[in-house]
TrEMBL record, chains A, B:
Gene3D superfamilies in the record: 3.30.450.40, Winged helix-like DNA-binding domain superfamily/Winged helix DNA-binding domain
Chain ranges of the HTH iclR-type domain: 9-69
Biological classification of the source: Bacteria, Bacillati, Actinomycetota, Actinomycetes, Propionibacteriales
Keywords: DNA-binding, Transcription, Transcription regulation
GO MF terms, alphabetically ordered: DNA binding; DNA-binding transcription factor activity
Domain IclR-ED span(s) in chain numbering: 63-252
GO BP: negative regulation of DNA-templated transcription
Name by which UniProt lists this protein: IclR family transcriptional regulator
Organism (species): Aeromicrobium camelliae
Transmembrane segments annotated in the record for this chain: none
SUPFAM superfamilies in the record: GAF domain-like (SSF55781), Winged helix' DNA-binding domain (SSF46785)
Length: 258, 258
DNA sequence: GAAAATGTTCCGTAAATCGGAAAAAGTAGT
DNA sequence: ACTACTTTTTCCGATTTACGGAACATTTTC
C-alpha cells in the first residue's frame, strides 16, 4: 500500500462502517455483517467482540447484534449537547461582549437547571457556576424562563410538590410562582434577585424549537449589587432577543435534514 | 504481545476511548486528547483525521474537536427506524399472508429508496433485497409511490437532474415521470414492471403522517412473469389500503407523545 | 442424531499502525 | 511585519497489529 499523507486508519474506518450499518440495518448476525462489509468472518467476529466488550454493541440471544448503550448514549445525549453548545456559542459570545457579565446556557432537568456552558465575566467581582452543576429551577432566572414554557401538565406536577426556600427572596408559594411564570411568559424574560444565593441574580430567557418545545435557557448572571444598577427591562429584551436568535439558529440547523 | 483468544482490537479500543472522551469532556484539542489517552500526537492526529473524514468528529476553528453529525445520525436512524418497523410489522405480515409475495418497507433517501425491512416470499422463484440496500426511486414501485407525495419544490429538484436508464422499461423523461406520478397520486398506488431489474416488478404505496408528510413506502415485489398474471388493480388497492392502515397506526402511536 | 449453518480460535504473514523527528502551520506579542 | 513559541501534520523505519483461511466449536434445523 502506497504511503500517502492524509490516509485514514483502515481499522477505524471498518469500525465506523460496522456501527453505521448496525444503526441503519440492525439487528444483523455475524455472517450478514461480514458479507455486507466484504470482510472475513474472523475479522468481523473480532471487531464485534471488541465493540461488545465496550458496550457499544449488544448481542442478543438470537445471535444478532445491534447498537449498544455506549454509542447510543453518545448519540442521544452527548452529541446533541455538544452541538447545542457549538451552534449557540456565537450568540452567547455576543451577549457576553454586550453585557460584560457571566453568560449561562442551561437545560431543564427535573426540578433543576443544569449548567451546560458558561462564559465568565472578566470583571473583578463576578458570578460563576460549575459546568454540570445544578440550581433549583424555581429560584434562578434560567429556570423560571424555562418553567414558563412547560406544558400545563408538567407545570402542574412541578407546582404540586413543595417549593423549597433557599433565601428570603425564594418564591415558595405555588400560586405566586404560577403568576410569576405567566408574567415571564408574556414578557419573554425572567428576573431573579437573590432567590437562590442571596448575593447572586440574573436575567434569563428560554430557547424553544419550531414546535415551541423547550430546548434550553440563556441567562446573564451577575452579583445582585450590580444588577440593581442596570435597566432590567433593557437587559431582559437583550436576553430575550438572544434566545429568539438561538431558536432561529436551531431551526435553520434542523431543517436541511427535513 | 501474547496471542490470547478473546483479545480485543487495540485500534478500535482507542477509537472508542477517544469518542467517549470527546463525549464526556469535549471540546478538546489534539494535545489534550493525546495526553489523556497517553498516545503520541501523531497517532491522535491520524485517528482524529479518520473520524473527521467520517463526520463522527468535527473540528472547530479554534482547533478543538467535538462529536460530529455522524454519531448524532446513529440516534436519528435508530430511534425512528425501530419504531417504524415495530409498529408496521403486523401490516406487512398481513400483506404477505394475503399475497404470498415479498413485502418491502422502504424510506426515501435522496434519489433512492432504502430497504428498511422485508418479508420474503416462500415461493420457489422470488424477489428479495438486502436490508440497507438502495434502488433508484424513479424505477421501482415504492420509489414512485413516495415521489408522488413529495412537496412540489422537492419534486422539481428530483426532475431537474437526469433520470438514469437501467432497463428499456425505465422512465427517463421528466415530463413523462411527472405525469406518471400524478396518476400514482390519484390512484393511490404505483406499478413497476421491470424498470430497474428487467425481471423484477412491484406494486407500492406511500405511508404519510397526519400532516401528509411522507414517512415510508410499502410494496409487494415479485418476478415480472408472476405480476403479469395478477389483477394489478386489485393488488394496488390492497397495497394502498395497507399503506393507509399504516398511516393511521402511526398517527395513533404518535399522539400519546404529543 | 446428522447435517448444515454459524461463530470462534489459531497462526503465518502481509498490512497497518506506531511514535520520534522534521516540517509545516498557527498564535501571540512587540 | 517579524519573531518566538506552540501546536499540528507529515515522513519513514521498525514493530506491532490485524488480516483471512482453515481447523475447530457451537448452535440450529430437519
Amino acid at each position: 500500500m502506497a504511503r500517502e499523507s492524509g490516509e485514514t486508519l483502515a481499522t477505524v474506518n471498518r469500525a465506523v462502517t460496522m456501527l453505521e450499518m448496525l444503526g441503519t440495518s440492525g439487528p444483523l448476525n455475524l455472517s450478514q455483517i461480514a458479507d455486507r462489509m466484504e470482510i472475513g468472518k474472523a475479522t468481523a467476529s473480532r471487531m464485534l467482540q471488541t465493540l461488545v466488550a465496550r458496550d457499544w454493541v449488544v448481542r442478543s440471544a438470537d445471535r444478532t447484534y445491534r447498537l449498544g448503550p455506549g454509542v447510543l448514549g453518545l448519540a442521544m445525549w452527548k452529541a446533541p449537547q455538544q452541538h447545542l453548545i457549538g451552534d449557540l456559542r456565537p450568540i452567547l459570545d455576543a451577549l457576553h461582549d454586550t453585557t460584560g457579565e457571566t453568560i449561562h446556557l442551561t437545560r431543564l432537568d427535573g426540578r433543576y437547571v443544569v449548567y451546560v456552558e458558561q462564559i465568565v465575566s472578566q470583571l473583578p467581582v463576578r458570578s460563576a457556576a460549575v459546568i454540570g452543576a445544578r440550581s433549583p429551577a424555581h429560584c434562578v432566572s434560567p429556570g423560571l424562563a424555562q418553567l414558563s414554557h412547560l406544558p400545563a401538565e408538567q407545570l402542574a406536577w412541578f407546582l404540586s410538590t413543595p417549593l423549597k426556600r433557599y433565601t428570603p427572596a425564594s418564591t415558595t408559594n405555588p400560586e405566586e410562582l404560577r403568576r410569576k411564570l405567566e408574567t415571564v411568559r408574556e414578557r419573554g424574560y425572567a428576573v431573579n434577585l437573590g432567590g437562590y444565593r442571596p448575593d447572586v441574580g440574573g436575567v434569563g430567557a428560554a430557547v424553544v424549537d419550531h414546535n415551541s418545545q423547550l430546548v434550553a435557557g440563556i441567562s446573564v448572571c451577575a452579583p445582585v449589587y450590580r444588577l440593581a444598577t442596570m435597566d432590567l427591562d433593557s437587559l431582559g429584551v437583550l436576553v430575550s432577543d438572544a434566545a429568539s436568535e438561538a431558536s432561529r439558529l436551531l431551526d435553520k440547523a434542523a431543517s436541511p435534514h427535513g
